[in-house]
Amino acid sequence: MKRAFSPLLVAFLSFCVSGCSLSDLIFGGMLSSAGNGIAAVYLSEDDPDLVRESLPTNMKLIELLIQQSPNNPTLLTSACQAFTVYTYAFVLRDAEVAMDEDFSSARHLTLRAKRLLRRARDYGLASLEASHPGFKEAYGSDPRSALERTGVADLAALYWTAAAWGLYVSASKDNPAAIIELPNVGHLLERALELDEDYDNGSLHDLMFTYTLSRPDGGSGAHVVAKKHFDRAMELSGGSRASLYVSYAESVSVNNQNRKEFLEMLEKAEAVDVNLIPNQRLANILAQDRAVWLKSRVDELFF
Q: Cys-Cys with 124: which of 80, 96, 178, 251 at CB 3.0–4.6 Å?
């Protein structure tokens, strides 16, 4: 199901299990789920540094527009997307790299990420509230019933709110109050799958794969369910997302201590032609960069 976004939006952005965090798993899917307007500007970009430098200006522009039109669901969803994208792709990534050398800096970046992701989540919920007055109050008492009011037009808000919420929980592992919010990610994704299971070439299945593995109550069958979502995401994307391979390597191969499979999945990620689908170019470049970084850490990840 295709959908239109404000041309003002500049966002692009699938990876909590075992040796990796939910934020690591979510990365690739989000990068591949930004809509036609964004793809023309950012998702086809081959220079991540250019995106890092220009995205914050657009984030503040969107917030300025929201001040003028506070109940505009398109602007609110755009803000949710942009803040989620920027925080994962740059703030959390910088925190991860800094962790090995500068714990104080890494902590500062993580705290900043949590603030930004909270803002992103709140923008997403505000978008759903703007489209369906009374949604937030209803969701607080009965999430599933409240979500029945949403429709196909809300798919972007559902997806990006789930992504922002999942990243916030991942970045808040030291806060039990935040961790118990994880089921909200599932509620939003399940409703979105009911509305359009092949949304944006498998983005929902991509994110559902990582959510299923991250659930503490997933049980012994979680990996079977997660694999079904992975396979469906791979099918719907035609194997064109490098991030799917990276996500599997981090979430499954590391957990199973399968070094051979880990390296094979990363090699598949590196083999994806980044120019094959222009609006996934940036996502694939960043996923391939991560694959190279993970290869350099293989002796740390496998014992």
A: 80
